[in-house]
Amino acid sequence: MSISTIRRQVKNVAYNFSDAQVKVREATSNDPWGPSTALMSEIADLTHNPMSFTEIMSMLWKRLNDHGKNWRHVYKSLVLLDYLIKCGSEKVAQQCRENIYSIETLKDFQYIEDNRDQGMNVREKAKQMVSLLYDEERLKNERTKFMMTRKKFMCGSGISSDGSIRHMRKSDIGAAFESELEDARPASAGEEEMQLQIALVLSREENEKEEELRKKDDIGLQMALNESRREIERMNSMDAAGQNTVPSSTLSQ
């Protein structure tokens, strides 16, 4: 378990985040790998719940406002939003249109890390999303296509409409796997180049950090616990100070 994962889990408890918020934080973390389709699918289903929808979108807009070293928060939030627009509640696209400026500004996102333009990934994804949001007909077609693919995959994976698991034949598994591979293929040369660059960056970072993280897990856990403890003590101190404040009207009596 990485240090960042430990810190995130401690914060989830300390700030009492809901299940929906925890899933969004996990999907848009700074970990050097993208959100899984399974996790994004769970979040997409939650967008149909009014309370969860509000929590999900609020967390996503907060993540999109990150910058600098947290560029992965921004990029992964765009990836997740793109998925939710196509597979989640229609309210997701509606709210994105209402806040289109927040996405359009990301077309100018800049961040250089180790002489690499990490902002390029964010800029490219933002452009794609803005273009899709402005084209209602294409968005409608994308949603239809996405829903059909998802339904076909669920059937091929042995999951029925009521969520139960049926017996799977090898041919079913093969068809589902091929379908998933087809969806993962880049749609253009630009997207392929972007995916290649991301893969190279993540591979390099993973190789560099794997040994270090393995040795520092225990230290990271202690640091995370201490940080959480200080945060809770600071919040308790602020609450106590507020309760001990005597109104001026009371003193004058």
From TrEMBL:
**GO CC terms of this entry:** clathrin vesicle coat; endosome; plasma membrane
Ranges of residues in domain ENTH: 12-143
Compositional bias (Polar residues) at which positions? 242-253
GO molecular function terms listed in the Swiss-Prot or TrEMBL record? clathrin binding; phospholipid binding
Q: Where in the cell is it found?
A: Cytoplasm
UniProt keyword annotations, A-Z = Cytoplasm, Lipid-binding, Phosphoprotein, Repeat
Could you state one GO biological process linked to this protein?
A: endocytosis
Pfam families the record matches: ENTH (PF01417)
Chief location bin:
cytoplasm
Ranges for region Disordered:
230-253
Cross-referenced InterPro entries, in alphabetical order? ENTH, ENTH_VHS, UIM_dom
The record's section on PANTHER family has: EPSIN/ENT-RELATED (PTHR12276), FI19443P1 (PTHR12276:SF115)
Q: Which family does it belong to?
A: Belongs to the epsin family.
Name the UniProt record assigns to this protein: ENTH domain-containing protein
Species in which this protein is naturally found: Brugia timori
